[in-house]
Amino acid sequence: MSTPDLSVHSLVKRFADHSAVEDLSFSVERGSFFSILGPSGCGKTTLLRMIAGFIAPDGGDIHIGGRSMQGVAPNRRPVNMVFQQLALFPMMSVGENVEFGLARRGIGKADRRRRSDAMLERVGLAGAAYKRVDELSGGQRQRVAIARSLVLEPTLLLLDEPLGALDLKLREHMKIELKQLQAAFGTTFVYITHDQSEALVLSDHVAVMNHGRFEQRGTPQELYYEPATAFVAGFVGANNRIAGQLTGGDRELAELTTSDGWRVRARKSAAMRVNDLVEAFVRPEVASIERDEARLPASHTRHAGRVRSLLFDGANSAVLLTEEASHFEFRVALPQTGQFADLKVGERVFFSFDPQRAICFAAPIPGAPQA
Amino acid sequence: MNDALSQRIWQRRLMLTLLLAPALLWLFALIVLPHIDLALLSFRARSAPRHYQPSLSQYDTFFTEPLYWQIFVRTALLSALATVLTLLIAFPIAWVITKVAQGRASTLLFMVCLIPFWVSETVRTLGWLILLRQSGVLPALLVSLGITAQPVELLYHNATILTGLVYTSLLFMVVPLIGSLESLDNSLIEAAYDLGASGPAILRKIVVPHAAPGITAGCIVVFMLTLGNYLTPTLLGGKNSQWFTELIYTQFIVRFNWEQGAAFGFLLLALSTSMVALGLRVSGQRFVDVMRRS
User: Fold this and answer.
1) Chain A residues with CB inside 8 Å of B188's CB?
2) Is the complex ipTM more than 0.90?
3) Domains, chain A
């Protein structure tokens, strides 16, 4: 096995009132797209800035390309960063922006020009070298920022939520473009974001970060289908969170009762005891909805509810129900068949879900930090 | 309908005229008119009592009398030097206030720069006299430290004038620099650093180009203030180092030769205008951009 491009060993960073990064160790394989996903304030920016060298860690070490980065200044690291606001130099043309790093390495003008032109062509901006930065569209600027970094052939490219400033349509487009660029260049990308959809779509591996620690690391599929903690289940993808007390079940399935008396069943993530405070997570697409109770699978517990609101969003349409007895709000994804296109607010419907596909965690200890 | 519209336009014009009137009046009565009169004065010579005729003799005197043009050149050179020194001292100050100090510390530092200017320039300059004169604080300190055997006279040197001028001008350089450095996004500096630039390269390629309008604005203001300063060179330079403004004063007040004084005044105006034009040309700045910063 080749040495990983990035490996982090027991990294620690504390600020006056809290610790931003708490004893973190991980490594990123060569050529992969690695995302760090977490809410704002989880320490992901601090982590990225430590890798880039802008912040010195309080403990631990960072190896890039197998070399320790202790005491290595940002301008000497084989790492480049795409900034959140891109930070293109407005006083320079597009070509000068791309050549900036090469010029700092003392590469001659002709060679610089040749490499910068070739790089601009690869990112689909051939002939833009003489344009001013403010003449470019948001997506083009994004590509200049990436070109400016990749022309230096870094071991690692760090991306600090570079899509955050773009509007939705362009963001969707740039997601695909980023993934294709990464595949074409084969450079290792470390990408931080608070947008779970960006992380899931782009990455080979994702780490979910919360309070300076990784809650879980894995492929996007693992995070989505096999969340390791309640935080991951709640943060990645849409989920119905049902908090209650364990009132029964067997070794595999938990039965929990909410404070309003609603009983549901879900697969246990770990051993639990009766009366434990627990949380069950049910994805909206795991539940089925029917007008006729008998059409729901007999093996699943059936629940009755009323339509509270219709959340039409094309292929992602859902309906918000309130369970009849407890008035618990529950979100169910609507099937694509158009069968429920005429659903009305207030209508009585039935829903159920496979308890094997719902997952139950011990509730976070009250008072413990919560996202 | 149409009448009402035209009436409203007329009203708006009247309003605008009234609002601008004080400024226009001030500009015309106190700046344009006196200058026209001074220009006329400078281009005439007295041929007999109460009898004048057009002449270039005032300007001729300036070029033929070495004392005059030597003081003129010296004033220009010292002003340029004072401007450069002020820039070199003000830049780190502005940098610390905008980029290093955070929050309250930054405000406090700016106040420290500002507070001396609450005291009148005369009093501040007299303060320099107390510090620098032969029986003053600094010469006594030098003696007690054993650096000089006798108290030395620190007044009446070119360096003394420069010190006074830089001190007086500092704020006028710091303020435009703060303005232009504040608008410099820190991530640009980080990005340059990240792309392999060293400190001096970041200063040369990113900071100075960004701050150029502010630097030019500060230099223009300081140069003009220094060139036209009367008090500081007179008090700190004494008779050894005359400033061109002192010549103008002498012609008007002592010699009562208004014609010669007016000619000197116009020469000083020509000097400051051409230096500003030169400065803009050299730094590649547009006057409009620079004025927006100052």
Assistant:
1) 87, 89
2) no
3) 6-231 (3.40.50.300), 238-362 (2.40.50.100)
